Every structure is written in C-alpha cells, then in structure tokens.
Amino acid sequence: MTFIKRVLRILKFVVPILLVAYGWYFVRKRIIRQISPPTPAMIEQAKRVRIVRDEWGVPHIFGKSDADAAFGLAYAHSQDDFKFIQGAMVAARGELAMLVFSKEAIINDYYVRLFRIRERADENYEKLSPEFRGVVDGYAAGLNYYASTHPDEADGRFFPAEGKDVARGFIHKIPLFVGADAAMKKIASGSELKVGQPLDNPVASKDSRDDLPTGSNSHALAGSRTEDGSVYLNVNSHQPWEGPVAWYEAQIVSEEGWNMTGGTFPGAPTILHGHNEYLGWAHTVNYPDLVDVYKLEMDAAHPGQYRFENDWKDLVKRNDPIRIDTGFFVVPFPKETLESVHGPVLEGGGNYYAVRVAGIDRMIFAAEQWYRMNKAKNLTDWKKAMHMQGLPMFNTVYADSKNIFYIYNALLPKRNAGFNYRTVLPGDKAAALWDSYLPFEQLPTVENPPSGFIQNCNSTPFKTTKGPGNPDARKFPETAGIEDRMTNRAVRSIEILGNTNKFSFQDFLRMKWDRAYSKDGPMFRFAINPLLNEFKPVNSEEEQALSLLKNWNGMADDSPGASLAILTYRPIWKTTDMERGSLPDKTQALREAISFLKKNFGRIDVPLGQLQRMRHGLLDAPLYGGPDVMNAAHSVEKDGHLVGAAGDSYVLVVRFKPGKTESYSIHQFGNSTHPESKHFNDQAPMFLSRLLKPTVRTPAELNLRTESTYHPGEEVR
User: Fold this and answer.
1) What angle do CA 705, 710, 711 make, to 5 degrees?
2) Which pTM was predicted?
3) Mean pLDDT in runs of 10 for the chain (717 residues)?
4) SS3 state of residue 623
5) CATH class of 518-629
6) Which residues pair with 330 in a beta bridge?
C-alpha cells in the first residue's frame, strides 16, 4: 500500500470523527449558553430608567430610585463592555474555568476557593443595609436584562445574576490590590522561605519589565491658592488601558438624591472616584503592610497537623473541585484547600505557609462604603462613610467648595512588637497573630493645611503638603508598614505647588500634564546621576549614549535622551523602596537599552515618539510621557517598540465654586470597547494633545450634547 493510500484510509475514519466532534462542540455551545427571555419585572424596571448618551458616548443614567439607576448603569456599561463585566462576575464566583479554558482561569478559581470568597459573601451579604442591597440587586437585574436581550453575548449558565454576585466581586478584587497574589506567587515559586526572610522583592527581574503598575496622581488646591477662589481637584488614576480594571465614565442620577459623575470598573454598581454636586475625591494606591505570611511547622508523624504554641492543630481541609469546560465536556478537577488559624494555607517546595490578609472579612462592605461616599453632601457625611473601613487601602484626596482633606486610608493591623512583619513569620507564635485594626480617627490625615494644597502620588503620607499640617511619622509604629518613599510625581507636585503663588485653572491643568523628571527625583538620583558619575564607556555607542543622557533636559518629550533614559529606568523604577532596596544594575540596564535601540532602529538616537506608541485598533500614534511623570505612560515591549498599556487613563479635573461645580474629563481611547463603535477611539486625539472635554451634568447641558436617548432594551440598533 502506498503512503498516499494509507493516509487516505486513515482520513476516511478520522475526518468523520473530527466533523462529529466539532459539530458537537458548536451545538453544545449553543445549547448550554441559552438564556431565558426578560421577565416582566425586568421590563417594568427598564421603563423607570432613561439612558442619555452624550456626543462622546458617555451614558447619563436617570432612574426613579437608586436601585433603578444601578439597573441602568449595569445595562449601559454592558452595552460598551459586557465581556469584562460577565468575566468579572464569573471570576468572583470561582467559575472562570467554565467560561475560559486557561491556566489563569484555573488559578483564579483555586484562589476563590482558598480564600473562601463565595462563603464570605454568603456570610455577610445580609449585613449590608437593605438600601444598598436594593442597589446591588438592581445592578444584577440590569445585567440580567442585558443578557436576556443580547443572548448571543451572554453565557446562560451564569444567569440570572444575583446581588450577591455583584457584592462578591469586591471580595474577589481587593485582596489582589493589597498584595495577596504576590504572596501566593512567592510561595508557589517552590523556593523555601525561611522565617525572617524578607517578603518584598525589591528587584524587578528582566522578565517583569512589562508588569503594569497601579499608580495615580491626586491633588487638591484650596480657594486661598487659586485666582478665582475656587477649589480644584485632580482625579487622575493610572490604570491598565484594557481589561477588568480599566476605567469607564458615567453619570448616575436618581430621584433619591444620587448624582455622581466619574469612573467605575466593570461589575461595580457605583462610581469609584469622581464628584457629585457637592464634593469629590481621588484615590491613589498606597502600600501599607496588609498581608502577612507565616511558615508552619508540620508534624512529620501526623500529616496535616501544625504546631501552634505548645499544641498541634489540624489543618482544616476542604474539597471543592474546580470545574473546567474543555469545550467538549466539563471535567471536575479535584483540588483540596487548607486553612490554619492564621488563614489560607499553601504548599510550596514541600513546606507549608499561611497567608493572612487584613480586612478580608469586611471587604464586601467596600461596595457600600463607596455608595455612601457617592451620596455624601459634605465632609462630615463623607467621613462617616469612610468610617465603615470596608475599603482597606488607597490614599484618598477629598475636596469641596470649602475644604481639602487627605487620608492615608488603610486597615492597619494592631500588631505586637517583636516581629518584623515584612518578613516570613513563625507560624507557631500566637503573639505574631493580630485580629484588630487601627481606628479611622488614628490614621494619617491632613485637613485644610496652611499651604493650601494637598497631593499624593503613590507617596508617603508624611509629605502630603509643605510646611505645617503633615502627619507626624513618630506617632505610627513601624509595624504599621507605612511607606516613606517619594515618587517623582510627588517631588514634582511639591516643587510646583510648594510656593505662595496663586494658580489659574490653566496653571492647574498644566501641572497635571507635566512631563518633567525632577533633578531631585528617583530617575536622576538612582539612574541618571550615578551613570553620569560612574559609567565607563567601552565603545563609541556607549560614549554617544552617555552624551545623550548628559544633555537630556529631563523631559519625557520627543527627544532621543528621553527614549534612552526611559528604557534604562524601566527595570529600576518599580523598586518600591529605592532608598533601602537592592536596585538592578544600572550599567546593565543602560547597555540593554542601547542594544534594544540598535536592534530595532539601527541607531540609539531615537526620538521618544518613534519608540513609544499608542496602538488601539487602527490607531498607531506617537505617545509621550513616561513612567513616574505626571503625564504617566507605562508601556510593554512589542514589535521592537514600547506600546502604551497603562498610565494616564480616565482623567477628571473638578472646579468647586460656591453654588456651582464644573468638571472636565478625558479617556485615553473612548467609552466603548467595540472596535466598530465610533466611540472606540474618538477621545484619543484629545488625550494625546493633553486636552480635556467638558463633562455634561445638567439637563440643559445634556440637551445641547445628546447623541441618543432610550430606555434599556429600546435603543436603536
């Protein structure tokens, strides 16, 4: 039999099997994804909601009640980004491997089981106020209505959603913000972690150069420092440009007094930062020590037991298989989870470690805290909402027409002295455990300082302003883990604001878009100046590189010096504690930058606009700014370029005048994630030009700028 005949004979049997298999794949997919039609209750609630899209596609949602407004937010956001909203809900349920067949999905579902995210939601959901449960129920109903009216987009196995699904998302996401995932990765690496070994990884490896940070800028300027007597607020978070934590702009209005403009994430039923008619706030990521890791001493003679003081305790074991949808069938993947008195337990390299996360039992209340902040009418109301302490982290800068205020918001554990909580802790010592927190009143704050300004740019709370009014670092124990670093953005903020000049609104905007690296900031202190003083060129290219750095003006603009400096700085700048951390080798970083430019451009004098690009769909444009400047741009290496992936994203600048509040905003791309939408990239040209658009808040303004008006389910398709 010839080779061709053998192949044909094999194909005779294989092809029908493949056709049946793929036929089953598509038929099964259609069957299991089927979703029920809208219920009468959904249809009735949709009639109580009106969505008005302005000329930029930003939704302004009007509801009879707060619950109706949340229904409308869910529906409008789903129109623009249903994929990530559905994904966020499914991930929080621990069923992501049913939706997406990937390693990351399986890890997510294990994390949900390990930290008992579903159970924590079940235990605490009824503790939310009836008013707020109505809001999350309304949001879930809006998701259900969208799924029912767009069945081709939704997976019916996960609908109808419940309010508990919405609230659960906060318990799922917040531990990742505070560092639980970093601790898990450290343990899973397989290397033994010894008691006393530092947990922080101060050196960013070459492989992690493209890890995207979560940074932000926030500024408030008192009326005493502005030419028109208004109070200015800069809301400027630096988030990933795409994905489950990318910003979405909306206005939520109800007849029950909710009227909030700002940014939110997929799956969130409120605005997370922005302003209402009375006040506003901005968040920046802070780095309190909220995660502790304990090494357990296991009993070799009795597997599953660990020492705690003078006793041996049994690990709590739970079996909850992870279900994986391969596309053809569902496979249950057995996975045991372990827990000690400290918290969830993971095995790594034959050793066992427990992870304790501050506030995980109260993170469901973060959702209601944000809602209460949304509805506050003055600083007293807003502080009352913050007293809930459901939100365990984030520097927060507040402003209204009379006040500016800053708080280092953190759920700081009351820890016993005698242990270094930044290191691996002994699991057998009861004294190393904690179960209470510093009250809100004792956190670092700054209120209406004499300088007339407040700033935080992922920096220490102890240099929030200039002169009197800063918190006293001596009042806080080292065990609190409050950072003392100053970012370039914080240094520049104090350089610009730390005088007695009065600022116009345009001056304030110029500061927001500033692209300068301060000569006193970390770029020059830890990279440029040491290279200028110590680097010894061994060839003409290295001599040219040193000359470019020497003549660079410190601006992240269209200069070859900026390109070389940013490439050199990228592996260095992620070190959280540059003062005490072990920094990557600067000489090696510079030589790798030279090599990258030579390889991809054939020379090293490459203007930043050629090196760094904004790409999104058909858009491919020069991108300026860089890591740790006010006009922040964080990039990943792709096709021989740096391609923007995070940084300045949704920007909102607010001016509070007595009796009037106005604001201006911009999104790096647009308000839709659908490439066919005209709002996919419509804001990008203004963003790249450092321009803002006026937000629309009043009916009169909206009448002039309306693109479409509809009830959910009745929009023009």
Assistant:
1) 140
2) 0.92
3) 59 52 48 82 97 97 98 98 96 93 92 96 96 98 97 94 96 91 89 86 37 78 97 96 95 98 97 97 94 95 94 95 82 91 94 95 96 98 97 96 97 94 95 95 97 97 96 89 92 95 97 97 94 94 96 96 96 70 85 97 97 97 96 95 96 94 97 96 98 95 94 79
4) coil
5) mainly alpha
6) 325
